[in-house]
User: Which sequence fits this backbone?
């Protein structure tokens, strides 16, 4: 057990517990807030992988952007307290079926993760991760980078269209 | 230091001229919309840009290479689909001009053209994408535009509902797809389809993992082509969207989905050593053909059977488009170049007849204010020209001679029989027979019910009738002289297989 | 002892110093604010507690400690207590990457003045923490179960999200010029040119935008809509009392300090001395030079703090729609243009 492992399991625990919180919370706001810790935990895991740029971007985009919007939505649409997540038809049959399919999917994934010979590249010792990422985006993934920009522009136009009165 | 790379990028730019033309048009329309605030200008610019893109595409013919460090391939196969997409885009742009649904509500149309162009761009890239990241981004570009377009008339409740359903199911399927991609990446350490293929070929693998991840990625594409069991969105979205967008989704979006599905399967799981042009051998002994066959049978059977109960023509056409996706999937099942060719031929004809049917339904809806089958009773005598054309399109969709649809089905079933999938062909033919019933129901209502309903004739503008004619005449002509299309498709089955 | 233990000890000491420093700065801010506002309104201001009232902030904190802590009956207890803690801790977390002087060499160990100022995504980290800062206020507004609090919380999050964009974009200019995201590098780059290659001269537009957005991000006047008294009672902290209120207070002043420090680091040359260090006879890595650097830095920060307070007592508040217009229709396009021009400049002049 070295330092690295301890920190890894710490973050992994945060991710798992808070993700369970997202799923099992009865209140929307609690679920949204648990998600905050899930995102933080994932960012921590990225740091352990020497991917500091991705980690910070994760915080900026998911915590600083997406989750805020979710919380905004909850705050604007619901009563302040006692908001229960309801759904129309959750009977025993649905629970059983959902449980069975969850177990099947989980078993399949676990068997797969244990058996696959994952590619493990050695972690390169980099002075800075930002520069190599920038260079890759501007050379090898140039087109993908530009398409992402177009995609965001389209989303922007669409959002403006939907939000506008007419 | 990076000069060589930069030069290669600049060289690659020359290979995506059609895409660049669309991109420039997209930007120009945004600016023109701000300056002129005139829908006619926007429409003119969009059509112009589409045509320019088409001219560049003709100039590119025969290119067979990859661009941008293997991010996309520019080959005859993608070129064929790009033509399909361009033709659809052009038809949709013109068709929207006649749509009262879009124009009568004081809806601002500027964004409509931008989104259609953006969607076309996304589909162009998807048709050629050979890298998982590129596939995902192109797919999302296409989806993002279509989500908004399907809710474009948002003050109509069912349109917003369509948009919302599309988004929710769409994000779920994207999520599944990208999860599959991540597993594939973890196993092979690469996002490049060629590299994944060679890594898989060189190393022994835990078969179920490849199967699961491949299935997850295919699920994402199956969503776009509305194959069962990823079809849930189709009826509601097709019914709720503006009819121009319904037509666009049912043809162009499906075409792009098929293009990427074929390319992904062929490039990733294809055993280069053991295959010839005529038969592709899949490596790792995973029966992808069987998986696709099951998908195809489920898709066409469910599509056809549910279509039987529909009373709304638009909804019926939605289910029929699911069924057609099933037929088209059979072309991939056989995994030969002949099968591929039959897909291309079928798709070209499907474009003509499906667009034709949707346009007529739209024009009728303007006059009789309904898309219900019962309201079509006796319409044959009120609008003989359009009703005959609709009859033609429906006959063609069923696959009866002497229409183009017949040739499409003939080539497709021929390819299936050739490679020994007899039971699949039988199911396909039985399905076509079932489909005859619901297509014929519309025809019967138009011509044989309320023959003399006393209502006056319906007037349609010359231009709108001309547009339907432009689709109707080829549907008939290609049913008799299909040689050129067959030759074109034969030349277009070449997929760029890597350096 | 292994290296990691030393690193942890060093970081802990620095962290304690920084946290203590921030509290002291907050106290200083309170004092300055009260004195300067008194000056602006032609009053005397605090003058009873300690010489010239210098101990007034401590008396204020003492008072807050002794006050009753009230949680409204229908409030969400957990979030109500969490919100101020979150606000304050995020305000402090930013300091993980902020340097406040050059380095000191002790033996063969080089100690940077800052917890981790050399991290190569420092600037991004600051932007990320700024965006996370919204949570405290939003949650406070929501959990109080009070419409004024909720409106205040919503306003502040909308405001912060809108201005974050321009803030980030204005900093891209600096990143383009420096070629690094590390705060140490950004300051060193400004030191390189006889002490006068300050980014404010290279990026005047970016500086103005950053200054304006800094006001908005800290919810200071003229952007203090979240706590506009005539409209919203007290805004998001209406239902807070005692030390929880004090924490919001502290967080606000910590943010103000942070903003001033960032402006100094990014645009005003950081700890650059007015004359080259050699002429003063100070060696690189010596304690004396680090102290001189710190002094220069501190004076600059104080001047900016004065500016913050001066603006608050001189300029009226924006209306909400004006605020949004300014953010989206004016600042955002200008900052995009600034990025474009800077990129062209870097490409052709460098």
Assistant:
């Amino acid at each position: 057990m070295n330092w690295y492992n301890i920190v890894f399991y710490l973050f992994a625990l945060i991710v798992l517990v808070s993700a369970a919180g997202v799923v099992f919370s009865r209140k929307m706001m609690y679920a949204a807030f648990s998600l905050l810790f899930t995102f933080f935990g994932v960012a921590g895991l990225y740091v352990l992988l020497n991917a500091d740029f991705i980690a910070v971007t994760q915080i900026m985009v998911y915590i600083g952007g997406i989750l805020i919007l979710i919380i905004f939505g909850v705050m604007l649409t619901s009563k302040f307290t006692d908001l229960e997540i309801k759904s129309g038809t959750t009977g025993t049959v649905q629970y059983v079926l959902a449980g069975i399919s969850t177990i099947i999917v989980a078993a399949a994934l676990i068997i797969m993760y244990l058996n696959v010979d994952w590619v493990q590249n050695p972690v390169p010792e980099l002075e800075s991760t930002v520069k190599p990422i920038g260079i890759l985006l501007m050379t090898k993934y140039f087109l993908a980078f530009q398409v992402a920009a177009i995609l965001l522009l389209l989303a922007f136009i669409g959002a403006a269209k939907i939000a506008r009165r007419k | 230091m990076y000069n060589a790379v930069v030069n290669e990028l600049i060289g690659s730019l020359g290979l995506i001229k059609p895409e660049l033309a669309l991109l420039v048009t997209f930007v120009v329309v945004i600016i023109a919309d701000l300056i002129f605030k005139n829908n006619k200008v926007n429409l003119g610019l969009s059509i112009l840009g589409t045509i320019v893109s088409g001219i560049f595409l003709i100039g590119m013919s025969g290119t067979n290479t990859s661009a941008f460090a293997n991010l996309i391939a520019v080959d005859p196969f993608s070129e064929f689909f790009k033509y399909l997409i361009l033709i659809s885009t052009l038809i949709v742009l013109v068709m929207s001009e006649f749509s009262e649904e879009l124009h009568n509500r004081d809806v601002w149309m500027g964004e409509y053209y931008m989104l259609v162009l953006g969607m076309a761009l996304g589909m162009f890239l998807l048709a050629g994408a050979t890298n998982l990241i590129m596939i995902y981004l192109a797919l999302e570009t296409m989806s993002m535009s279509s989500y908004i377009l399907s809710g474009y008339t948002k003050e109509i409740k069912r349109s917003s509902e369509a948009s919302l359903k599309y988004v929710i199911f769409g994000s779920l399927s994207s999520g599944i797809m990208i999860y599959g991609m991540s597993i594939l990446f973890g196993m092979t350490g690469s996002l490049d389809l060629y590299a994944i293929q060679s890594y898989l070929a060189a190393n022994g693998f835990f078969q179920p993992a490849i199967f699961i991840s491949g299935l997850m990625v295919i699920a994402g594409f199956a969503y776009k082509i509305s194959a069962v069991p990823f079809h849930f969105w189709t009826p509601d979205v097709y019914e709720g969207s503006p009819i121009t967008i319904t037509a666009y989704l049912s043809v162009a979006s499906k075409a792009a989905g098929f293009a990427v599905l074929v390319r992904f399967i062929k490039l990733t799981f294809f055993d280069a050593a053991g295959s010839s042009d005529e038969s592709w051998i899949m490596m790792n002994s995973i029966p992808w053909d069987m998986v696709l066959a099951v998908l195809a049978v489920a898709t066409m059977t469910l599509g056809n059977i549910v279509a039987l109960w529909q009373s709304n023509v638009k909804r019926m056409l939605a289910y029929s488009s699911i069924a057609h996706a099933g037929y088209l999937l059979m072309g991939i099942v056989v995994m030969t170049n002949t099968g591929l060719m039959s897909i291309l031929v079928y798709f070209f004809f499907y474009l003509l007849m499906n667009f034709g049917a949707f346009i007529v339904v739209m024009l009728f809806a303007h006059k009789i204010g309904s898309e219900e089958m019962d309201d079509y009773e006796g319409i044959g005598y009120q609008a003989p020209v359009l009703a005959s054309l609709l009859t033609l399109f429906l006959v063609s969709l069923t696959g009866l001679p002497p229409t183009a649809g017949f040739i499409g089905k003939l080539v497709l079933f021929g390819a299936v029989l050739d490679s020994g999938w007899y039971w699949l062909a039988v199911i396909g033919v039985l399905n076509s027979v079932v489909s005859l019933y619901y297509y014929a129901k519309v025809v019967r209502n138009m011509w044989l019910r309320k023959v003399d309903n006393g209502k006056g004739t319906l007037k349609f503008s010359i231009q709108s009738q001309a547009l339907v004619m432009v689709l109707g005449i080829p549907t008939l002509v290609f049913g008799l002289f299909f040689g050129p299309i067959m030759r074109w498709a034969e030349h277009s089955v070449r997929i760029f297989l890597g350096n | 002892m292994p290296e990691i233990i030393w690193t942890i000890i060093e970081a802990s000491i620095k962290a304690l110093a920084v946290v203590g420093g921030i509290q002291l700065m907050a106290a200083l801010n309170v004092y300055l604010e009260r004195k300067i506002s008194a000056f602006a309104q032609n009053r005397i201001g605090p003058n009873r507690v300690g010489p010239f009232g210098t101990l007034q902030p401590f008396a204020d904190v003492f008072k807050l400690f002794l006050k009753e802590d009230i949680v409204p009956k229908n409030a969400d207890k957990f979030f109500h207590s969490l919100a101020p803690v979150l606000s304050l801790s995020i305000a402090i977390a930013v300091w993980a990457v902020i340097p406040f002087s050059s380095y000191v060499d002790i033996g063969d160990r080089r100690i940077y003045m800052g917890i981790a100022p050399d991290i190569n995504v420092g600037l991004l980290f600051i932007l990320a923490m700024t965006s996370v800062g919204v949570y405290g206020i939003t949650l406070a507004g929501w959990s109080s179960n009070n419409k004024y609090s909720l409106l205040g919380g919503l306003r502040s999050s909308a405001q912060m999200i809108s201005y974050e964009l321009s803030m980030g974009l204005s900093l891209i200019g600096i990143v383009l010029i420096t070629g690094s995201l590390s705060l140490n590098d950004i300051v060193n780059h400004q030191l390189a040119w006889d002490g006068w290659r300050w980014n404010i001269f290279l990026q005047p537009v970016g500086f103005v935008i950053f200054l304006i957005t800094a006001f908005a991000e800290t919810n200071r006047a003229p952007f203090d809509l979240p706590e506009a008294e005539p409209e919203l009672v007290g805004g998001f902290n209406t239902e807070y009392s005692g030390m929880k209120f004090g924490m919001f207070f502290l967080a606000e002043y910590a943010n103000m300090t942070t903003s001033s420090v960032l402006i100094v680091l990014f645009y005003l040359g950081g700890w650059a001395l007015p004359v080259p260090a050699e002429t003063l006879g100070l060696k690189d890595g010596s304690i004396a030079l680090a102290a001189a650097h710190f002094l220069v830095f501190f004076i600059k920060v104080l001047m900016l703090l004065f500016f913050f307070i001066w603006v608050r007592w001189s300029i009226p508040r924006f209306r909400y729609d004006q605020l949004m217009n300014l953010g989206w229709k004016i600042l955002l396009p200008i900052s995009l243009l600034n990025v474009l021009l800077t990129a062209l400049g870097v490409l052709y002049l460098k």
Q: What stands out?
A: Chain C has a mean pLDDT of 83.
